[in-house]
Amino acid sequence: MPKQSKAEIIRALFAAYLSNDRKAVEDAFTDDFRFTSPYDDEIDKATYFVRCWRVTDWIERHELERIFVEGDGAFVTYKCVAKGGKSFRNTEFFSFEGDRIKRIAVYFGATYHDAFVRQSES
Predict the structure, then answer these.
(1) Taking 90 as the threshold, does the pLDDT of residue 86 lie above it?
(2) Cα dihedral 74→78→115→86 (10° resolution)
(3) How far apart are CA 53 and CA 36, in angstroms?
(4) Which helix (H) or strand (E) holds 101?
(5) What is the dihedral of CA 13, 16, 17, 22, to 10 degrees?
């Protein structure tokens, strides 16, 4: 089987999320995988699956808008569309070790419900 490009690995990861294929997601991550978001700081693989893995039957689709790969890193910007019509856009930075994902840092973006929903100011 030919080696997948980093962009293909990212596309396969999003497809695995959508089909709830936890094994494919686990296999895509290195054993020392780390995840960071506005709610999580460098959590490990086991904690990621406890906090972040859930049934995705509420998601209609992911629209992968841009994937930029340079060396062992890649940015992906996507729009997640829920079955009820709401959506949001995020950007994630992936760090690779070989053909597996070592780190993901997610940056939450705008929420939409037929139009941009302004975040409340703190």
Answers:
(1) no
(2) -140
(3) 14
(4) strand 100-112
(5) -110
